[in-house]
Specification:
By secondary structure, this protein is an alpha/beta fold. Strands 1, 2, 3, 4, 6, 7, 8, 9, 10, 11 and 12 form an eleven-stranded mixed β-sheet that branches. The chain has a two-stranded antiparallel sheet with strand order 5-13. Helix 1 packs across helix 4. The longest helix has 18 residues. The protein is globular, with a radius of gyration of 19 Å. The mean pLDDT is 92.
């Protein structure tokens, strides 16, 4: 059975010096974070990769990763596809609001590759390093897919303390789990920083402490092909229930929509524990730490100095 890895790479990192943070080299030989995710996914058993990008970064993307990864994947019998997140890709009857300049968020991103998603799939961010464990667990879960389990999803759960940046605040989906390890709710929490006591969210009222051992979502989901139809209906509802939200800034976000499905008892989401340390380039200052982290992983034998050599 095919299992697909969907990589959301359409975003420009506004906090990362105005550059395309997904394409910043961090490995010994110019590898980017995405290279390591692709390596770990293929090693875990994923055999199809879909890149979600924007047409205006297509050339830079091809130069930095696309051409190279296509060649590697061809040798490994891994299928490659591209999808483009477009600002005006809207439900029928919905017009692009005048003044809207940015795409509509991660939910719309996944919808952009709906024609490629005919098998169970995982979704990740391009600029996050997740570690090997999560890919193995997601792949094993997806391999149990049957049409009867079309509403059974999974999510990689990370320990909050392992996902914080030393250089500024981050947004995380703080998870609520039931006694059986299933997701019962997810709270998108902004402006989380490291503190002497662990972690806290910066609010208008001051700092609100958060348990640093809380389980959080890093947008690493295991989903079924049937999910795409739900997601499409949810996108229409997003506009129909806009209310007093700012339509020029509002986003259709994957975790928020999945939380809505959970609250309606329409799906289940098994939380798969991952104890690997996350890292990513949220801020320009994060890059040096990420580079050193990959050096250590290579030194410790987690990765070969020449990535992908162990897959040949």
């Amino acid at each position: 059975m095919k299992t697909t890895l969907v990589i959301m790479a359409a975003g420009i990192g506004s906090r990362f010096g105005g550059g395309i943070k997904q394409l910043a080299p961090v490995g010994l030989h110019g590898e980017i974070i995405m290279d390591y995710s692709i390596h770990d996914a293929i090693k875990a058993g994923f055999n199809k990769i879909v890149f979600i990008i924007r047409k205006d970064i297509k050339e830079a993307f091809q130069e930095a990763i696309g051409n190279r990864i296509e060649k590697i994947c061809k040798d490994l019998n891994v299928e490659i596809a591209y999808a483009y997140q477009e600002l005006d890709a809207l439900p029928e009857g919905i017009s692009l609001p005048e003044g809207r300049t940015k795409p509509w968020g991660t939910g719309q991103a996944v919808l952009s590759c709906k024609d490629s998603l005919t098998e169970p799939f995982a979704v990740i961010n391009a600029d996050d390093y997740y570690g090997k464990e999560a890919f193995v667990k997601l792949h094993d879960f997806l391999m149990e897919y049957t049409p009867e389990k079309s509403n059974a999803y999974c999510m990689a759960g990370f320990v909050l303390n392992n996902t914080l940046s030393e250089n500024g605040a981050v947004t995380r989906g703080v998870c609520e789990l039931n006694a059986d390890g299933y997701l019962s709710g997810i709270r998108e929490t902004h402006n989380i920083i490291k503190t002497e006591d662990g972690a806290a969210a910066q609010t208008e009222e001051g700092l609100r402490a958060i348990d640093p051992q809380s389980i959080v979502s890093m947008n690493m989901w295991g989903l079924t092909p049937e999910f795409v139809e739900l997601l499409e209906g949810g996108f229409r509802e997003f506009f129909e229930t806009m209310g007093d939200k700012d339509i020029l800034k509002a986003e259709y976000l994957l975790p928020i929509y999945i939380d809505e499905l959970l609250k309606g008892d329409k799906v289940s989401v098994k939380v798969l524990d991952s104890h690997d340390k996350w890292f990513g380039v949220t801020y320009k200052e994060d890059k040096d730490y990420v580079v050193e982290s990959f050096k250590k992983l290579i030194k410790d034998g987690v990765y070969a100095e020449r990535l992908f050599e162990d897959l040949k």
